[in-house]
Amino acid sequence: MFVSEIDATRIQKGNTASVTLDAYGSARAFGAHVAEVATAPTAINGVPAYEVKLSFDAPDSAIKTGMTANAIISSANAQ
User: pLDDT (tens digit, 9 = 90+) per residue, 1-48?
Assistant: First the structure.
């Protein structure tokens, strides 16, 4: 996924995320975490954006390659 430069400054490797897949609706969420945040931007429609790669916390056969996903990334984990 790509995020704005403002959001990229708040996201760190290891942050938790909740991912929903359009195929299952918002009632079914999958746990994930940030695996990588790009250090260089990619221009999307002339606007700099940073790629964030998520990794699911547990394998699930319901998750298929190419599914449309939405993610909420927690930028501050409780300590």
Answer: 999 999 999 999 999 999 999 999 999 999 999 999 999 999 999 999
Q: What is the pLDDT of residue 70?
A: 97
Determine contact, residues 69/17, Cβ cutoff 8 Å: no
Residue-wise DSSP of 16-78: EEEEEETTT-TT-EEEEEEEEE-SS-EEETTEEEEEEEEEESS--TT--TT--EEEEE-SS--
User: Cα separation of 37 and 35, whole Å?
Assistant: 7
Asked if residue 21 lies in contact with residue 69, where contact means CB atoms within 8 angstroms, the answer is yes
Mention every residue, 6+ apart, whose C-beta is less than 8 A from residue 35.
13, 53, 54, 55
> Does residue 57 come out as left (phi exceeding 0), alpha (psi in the -120 to 50 range) or beta?
alpha
